[in-house]
Amino acid sequence: MSQPEPFPVELLTPPDPARLPLPPAAPAAPGAQVLRGAVYDIPEGSRPLEVDLWLPAETADPVPVIVFVHGGAWRTGLRDDLGPRFRDWRPGPFARLVRSGFAVACPDYRLSGEVTHPGQLRDLRAALTWLHARSAELRLDMARTVLWGESAGGHLAALLALTAGSLPVRGCVTWYAPTDLTRLAEDQPEGVYDPSDPGTFEALLIGGALTDLPDRAREASPVSHVAPDAPPFLVLHGTDDVIVPHAQAERLVTALHRAGVSAELVSVRGGNHLWAGIEDEDVERCFNASLGFTASLDLAARRVDAADRERDGEGSGHGGRG
Prior knowledge:
This protein is about 35% helix and about 20% strand. The protein has helices at about 95-100, 120-135, 135-140, 150-165, 185, 200-205, 215-220, 245-260, 280-320, and strands spanning about 25-30, 30-40, 50-55, 65-70, 105, 140-150, 170-175, 235-240, 265-270.
């Protein structure tokens, strides 16, 4: 009696997210459309990770990209949520960014209940890699990418911007983000924060109390990765933040300045975490300042690209006449 053929184990391999069909586009606002839930990665032993894509309804040329990283203490959060002060905006913040000339990618990442650091950073790198792989069909100019994150998402955006390596990042916007986990207790009023507590959000992120894992806490801190080749940063932080102290923003900007990197700190007077404590018009100013910074980086990038093209053209012309 013949033996059955061995099972083709390659059939168990998950599909390549770079080849999966994209979800259908749906209108989001006049001039903007959204593709919700595109699978960008399938980590082994984990759920598929998804990204929402906010795109111009029509575009002839590839557009610059904002990658938004949501907050939620690395423990919770929704990928398309800029925070409670923006949930009633009509049109919403991402549609406004699209109408200003950008595409917006809002990726999932695994939370601290699923994986510890650096799992979240690994996921976001995979999202960038996927966006590069699908950039032609999505009409994205990934050479003009800016990262933007709030709270824990600002921490992750900063980490990604500072460790992106060969993945080009033009700049980074952070809102009220922790930047130096090793000095959180020092930056809070005495007795407010216990770095030996294994139940803090930061401890859950790195897999143990900060005092027990000082090297891992340092490695998970954006300030530890600042180097002269870092992209420009815009750092916004409320002066009255009781969750992530304002001193954390100062630490990141100081480190960037010492490395010779362009960085601006906007201290929002009276602002608490999630922009609690300030008026609606002040919240809008924070958004517009971030958009203005992003647009200025894109304008500078286009000027450099135009100068490069002109120089290359002149070189070709001289070669032809020779």
